[in-house]
Each structure stands twice: as structure tokens, then as C-alpha cells.
Fold this sequence. Notes:
Blueprint: E1 2-6, H1 9-26, E2 31-34, H2 41-54, E3 62-65, E4 67-69, H3 80-87, E5 99-100, H4 109-122, E6 128-131, E7 153-156, H5 159-165, E8 178-181, H6 184-188, E9 192-197, H7 203-211, E10 229-234, H8 244-253
This protein binds 2-phosphoglycolic acid (PGA).
Amino acid sequence: xxxxxxxxxxxxxxxxxxxxxxxxxxxxxxxxxxxxxxxxxxxxxxxxxxxxxxxxxxxxxxxxxxxxxxxxxxxxxxxxxxxxxxxxxxxxxxxxxxxxxxxxxxxxxxxxxxxxxxxxxxxxxxxxxxxxxxxxxxxxxxxxxxxxxxxxxxxxxxxxxxxxxxxxxxxxxxxxxxxxxxxxxxxxxxxxxxxxxxxxxxxxxxxxxxxxxxxxxxxxxxxxxxxxxxxxxxxxxxxxxxxxxxxxxxxxxxxxxxxxx
Length: 261
Ligand code: PGA
């Protein structure tokens, strides 16, 4: 796992956007895995800016989102359909028919989940999966106790996640209790992973994911099993890392490192 620590949220978001641009420059028809939440907002803003000012092209891109709340219509302001449209898709040129977001309103979850997995495969698999991390260490909505080989499925949200996400809803009771989410196994099949985290409230989860044991109790720790995972942090989120000096040292020495590709 590569750990890249930036001073601010903006710097972290710009560095993460460069990774997405690198993929698109080598593979214009890349399949991107998208995430929602407050973390990737800066990354999406930067990608939108690059599209507008530098011609970063999404016309051949396909996207698959990680998760969606159950019971919210796509037009609900807190649905992830709405979030993605408002914060990203309406500002760039991903063709509508290439956008996949789990349905929060299907009446047959098992068959929808199987279809979603199948579509990912038919599109050639995900080239780069963008990820956030929950304060309980989850990736997507793979809450503590999830299998590290899990696939797309219906999941009951942890109380901690409901608390964390209550800030986006008028009332705590309005936060959905169920979600549909890609599994940890689904995520680990992406060719590259890009996890971003910022803020002090993520410091524990970040340290557990990067430096703790690989465990279903902190599903982000499964990234340790992936050969091409990069983690971009701001300095608050890096606050509890024991090996921080080493990660900074690696970054400092990177320009002089021997190239092997
Ligand atoms: P956040 O959510 O970006 O809103 O903090 C992250 C997550 O729960 O994965």
C-alpha cells in the first residue's frame, strides 16, 4: 500500500485527481469505480475543473458506484444518485448509458445485485476504484463483521454510520437503515484502489486500516491484500499513524528512486 500524506484537504484532493487523470490518459475508455460522501467532493471538483480547463475527457468512460441507500428515490436529495448527478455527472461528459449506480428501489435485491456484478464483469472490470473510509473503518457500506470475500448485496447499516450520516438529513430518523453495497471481494477485484480520508475523526480508522491486522472488523484493512492500493490522506487523518515518518521519507525519496517500469 502506498500512503501519501498531504498538508490539506485541497492538496489531497488534487493529488487523488491526478491519479484518475493518469488512468484516463493511458486508457480513455477506463471503467471507474465512484464513491460518495463528503470525502470525494474535492476530488470531483478538481476533476470537473480539469474537464473544463484542460479538456480531461470522460466521453468513453464507464462508471460504477459503490453503494446506495435503500428506500430513497433517485431524485431524493440525499440519494447517491442525486449526489453523483449534482457533484459530478452534470459537469462532465460521461455518457448517461455508461453510468451505473446501485438501485435503492428495486423490488428484487438478490437479482439486482447479481446483475450489477455481472455488468461490472461484462464491462471488463473496474480499472480504478475510488474509496472513502467510515469512522468505523468501513469501505463502501461494508460494516464491521462483513466478509472480506463479500459481493454486492443488501446490508444493514451500523449505528455509528447512521450517526455519522445523520448530519445530511433533517432528522436522525430519516437516515435509511439499509443499503445496497459492493462487497469487499468486489472492491478487491478492481485493478487499482484509491482511498482518500481527511479529518481527525478518520484518524483511528485510517491507522487501523493501514497498520492494524487485516480483519473483517475494519473492512478497509482488506486494502493491505491489494497489490495496487494508494491511500491519500490529509495530515489530520494521518494523525494516528505510527509509521508516518517512514511514509513521508518514501515520498521525499520518490524522485530519486530507481524506475522499474
Ligand atoms: P464521508 O463518508 O466521506 O462522508 O466521511 C465516508 C464513508 O463513510 O465511507
